[in-house]
Write a structure and sequence with these properties.
Length: about 210
């Protein structure tokens, strides 16, 4: 039996924001040990390759960081849509502009960013103000240490007010990614629970309906 409820206990919004965080502490199936090795973390496929025209690369993957000296890290972002910003926490040990981050759409470069300091902690921030489609990014350096990559996305709903809720065989199905289940905490605060493209649940504090 399948039942349809329209707008049942939902707080409608025009869009919802989420983050994919890569902390370099949970590589699947295992951490890279050689140039050209690939792995997945936070649902994002990654690979370490040489910086052309070199044919070899050097790196160190340890719990909580990835060091490139030198190497190029490639990240497949094709599973994400509407990327609004990317932040990379790192220390560049080479020079200003030595760490280069580049973003691609179907092999065509759509933006770059680089470090502004050296030998000190820095967050490289790339704001995708043009909302270009981004399906790949690379980070290359001759000597740096990357601690975390934070990728922000925005899911836009065409008509969230018409979202439908289905109940079938004991399961509840929400067809619109912008909507979620609103739960009330013991102290009486309300939170919307949603899921991102990696299957990770996120909560956002909202005004109780």
């Amino acid at each position: 039996m399948r039942l349809l409820f329209a707008g049942l206990f939902l707080l409608f919004t025009a869009s919802i924001f989420s983050q994919t965080i890569i902390p370099f502490d949970n590589p699947m199936p295992s951490a890279p040990t050689a140039c050209n090795d690939s792995w997945t973390e936070a649902g994002i496929p990654q690979q370490l390759i040489p910086i052309p025209p070199a044919t070899t690369c050097s790196f160190d993957y340890s719990a909580g960081s990835l060091s490139l000296f030198p190497a190029r890290l490639t990240l497949d972002l094709s599973s994400l849509s509407n990327i609004t910003a990317v932040e990379i926490d790192l220390i560049d040990l080479c020079a200003v502009g030595c760490t280069v981050v580049e973003f691609f759409d179907a092999g065509v470069s759509v933006g770059t960013a680089s470090n502004l300091t050296s030998n000190t902690f820095e967050t490289i921030i790339y704001n995708n103000t043009a909302m270009d489609q981004i399906d790949e990014m690379t980070i290359e350096s001759f000597e740096n240490q990357i601690f975390e990559i934070n990728i922000s996305t925005e899911t836009v709903c065409d008509d969230p007010a018409n979202a439908e809720v289905w109940v079938e065989d004991g399961d509840v199905y929400l067809e619109n990614a912008c909507n979620g289940i609103i739960l009330t905490s013991p102290s009486g605060n309300c939170f919307r629970v949603t899921v991102n493209d990696n299957g990770e649940l996120t909560t956002v504090a909202i005004t109780c309906p």
